[in-house]
Amino acid sequence: MSAHHYPKLKLGENESVRTVATDPMTTQFFASGSLACRCLSKGTSPRINEKELIRKELFMSSVDKAIESQLKNIQTRTGKTLEQLYAHIKKSGLAKHGEIRDMLKKDLALGHGDANTLVHTYLKAGTGGSAAPSSTDAVLDQIYAGPKADLRPIHEKLMSAINKFGEFEIAPKKGYVSLRRKKQFAMIGPATNTRVEVGLNMKGVKGTDRLNELPGGQMCQYKVKVTDAKEVNKELVDWLRQAYDSAG
Q1: Over the chain (248 residues), what is each successive 10-residue block's mean pLDDT?
Q2: Is-above-0.70 flag for pTM?
Q3: Fewest Cβ atoms nearer than 10 Å: which of 22, 54, 140, 166?
């Protein structure tokens, strides 16, 4: 399998980007949506702008640091080392990501985001479990890393509702995911450490105090701010459904 190699690029006095090989198996890391799918299916690699490559490298580095910090905090709060936490998981005999996460929340009083990150690192390390999280889960682990981890249940409740509508594509971006049919109908991601924002594209809907109508020329026509999973109610799901139908 052929690969394209990019030389090391000087970023600063003590920083550089390592040589990166891209091939049909690694393309999805740097590209998203239909482009990535086409590259994987046709066995070709897209050209990657060097500045974009640097930006993604630095972004992934900051994500790794956030996860490392989160794991240290988990160890401090539980009074257990990472090895002891892994041993606790292994002793439970559980194999599925969701089951292990819920067990940690119950046994160790961990928050949803902390428990989810711990399970992800446990399975990624190959220390147990029958199935690692999907690539989408891995992207969400990055988006909802560190102080944004507690917002993950909002995202999951939104996606649970949207998945009932029918087929659509998920295109991971930096800091959010784009949801598409023939065109983008929604964007979901954390705007701050305490709020998820849902962008919507639909027509003929009058804005309200909750449904903020945005000026023209933006990626979405409406925006809804969500600070708690309880706010993912029928009203919001109906707006999502209307956006979904409009994009068909």
Answers
A1: 42 41 34 34 48 56 72 91 90 87 92 86 68 62 90 94 91 90 95 96 92 90 96 97 94
A2: no
A3: 166
